[in-house]
Design brief:
Helices cover 44% and strands 6% of the residues. It is built from 15 helices and 6 strands. The protein has a 4-stranded antiparallel beta sheet with strand order 2-1-5-6. A two-stranded parallel sheet has the order 3-4. A hairpin with a 6-residue loop joins strand 1 and strand 2. The longest helix is centred in the last third of the chain and has 22 residues.
Length: 371
């Protein structure tokens, strides 16, 4: 998913869940900041780099793919962007352990770790709620991909089609991928930027949905392809439907975090709260454009009656850097860092308990923040 959904969409879900304008802004800012909090950013503000929630392209270029490097990368991408659906999923008996471990990291919604993620944020900061909403939402967008490099799990081939036109009357068009970091997607011609093919299983190019480009992150996209992990059976991905489910599940989760719902239950969606706005939401989700921020923002402001400020990655940096000693922990970014560290530790521990060593051992939950 992109800024349009993680920031403005999360704000809308928070408002519909009953949070105030100010609290909704803090939640949605934190949800989007998950896509910004790299080691480079943390080093700049003198924060603990172990709390990184994403990696920049330049960082990935220098990423080692030996065991420690793979574990470091996997901890980040699995914990925040490709939450595994089932760490104990059945795999063919003949499958070797390396394949089995990667197969069990395939992302999907409504797994046990989604429940654990939302419950982890209960009673914690607004930043923790935002982190949980990012993770929850990405389980829908990134379904069928894994947050660890894998040619077998994440590769695509020539059989990749998108549905162009109305859902009932559209036509399937073969997608053409090209590699060009400075290029942009051509939605009209169906030409999309993706990572270059590398036949090595652990190549960085085979991380997450890189081989499928931005298609999983476009809310309007409906596509089908033949994943190797599924024995080349065709998989259909309907993003508008999935994104709407993600939105309604966020409302349910945010009501739980606000104390309205006594329990967070997977596969539950507050479609009643979204129902008066379903037509408008689906219009936003299905418009064929690379960025729906303008529409989401207009919808957000119509819901709350307040101006929703544009996202500014640097907004809280000075507050954090100016704070001294333990006061750093009570700043906006201090609370975010604590929530990120807790999420990473929880997911890493769960993967380790399953006998899977791809994410290494749990990260230290609380690292001394530089003064």
């Amino acid at each position: 998913m992109q800024l349009d959904f993680h920031y403005y969409g999360t704000y809308c879900a928070a408002i519909l869940a009953g949070w105030s304008h100010e609290n909704s802004l803090n939640i949605c800012y934190s949800a989007q900041f998950v896509d910004c909090c790299s080691k480079a950013l943390l080093a700049k503000i003198r924060g603990p780099v172990s709390a990184a929630t994403t990696q920049l392209q330049v960082e990935l270029m220098d990423q080692h793919t030996d065991l420690p490097g793979m574990q470091d990368m996997t901890r980040i991408w699995v914990s925040f962007h490709f939450l595994p659906y089932d760490l104990y999923a059945e795999v063919r008996k003949w499958a070797p352990a390396p394949y089995r471990n990667k197969y069990r990291l395939i992302c999907g919604p409504n797994g046990q770790l989604v429940k654990d993620t939302v419950e982890l944020a209960k009673g914690e900061s607004l930043q923790a709620a935002g982190v949980a909403m990012h993770v929850l939402a990405d389980t829908w967008a990134h379904r069928y991909f894994a947050g660890t490099p894998s040619l077998v799990i994440n590769n695509t081939n020539y059989h990749f089609y998108e549905l162009v036109g109305d859902h009932g009357n559209g036509t399937w068009r073969q997608v053409r991928f090209r590699h060009g970091p400075s290029s942009s997607d051509d939605l009209e011609q169906g030409i999309y930027v993706a990572t270059v093919f590398r036949g090595r299983e652990n190549s960085i190019m085979n991380l997450g949905h890189g081989r499928a480009g931005h298609l999983p992150d476009y809310s309007f996209m409906r596509y089908k392809y033949l994943p190797a992990w599924g024995n080349y059976a065709e998989v259909l991905k309907d993003n508008p439907s999935d994104y709407y489910n993600a939105f309604c599940q966020m409302i349910f989760a945010l009501k739980y975090l606000r104390g309205v719902q006594k329990e967070f239950v997977t596969d539950c969606y507050d479609k009643e709260a979204a129902a008066p706005f379903e037509k408008r939401i689906m219009e936003i989700l299905t418009v064929r454009r690379p960025d729906a921020c303008e529409d989401w923002k207009a919808f957000a402001e119509s819901l709350s009656g307040h101006t929703v400020e544009d996202f500014d990655e640097t907004r809280y940096e000075q507050e954090y850097m100016a704070a001294e000693g333990t006061a750093k922990e009570e700043t906006f970014l201090g609370n975010f860092i604590r929530a990120a560290a807790a999420q990473k530790a929880m997911v890493t521990a769960a993967i380790a308990r399953s006998g899977n060593r791809l994410a290494g051992v749990p990260a230290i939950r609380k690292e001394r923040q530089a003064g």
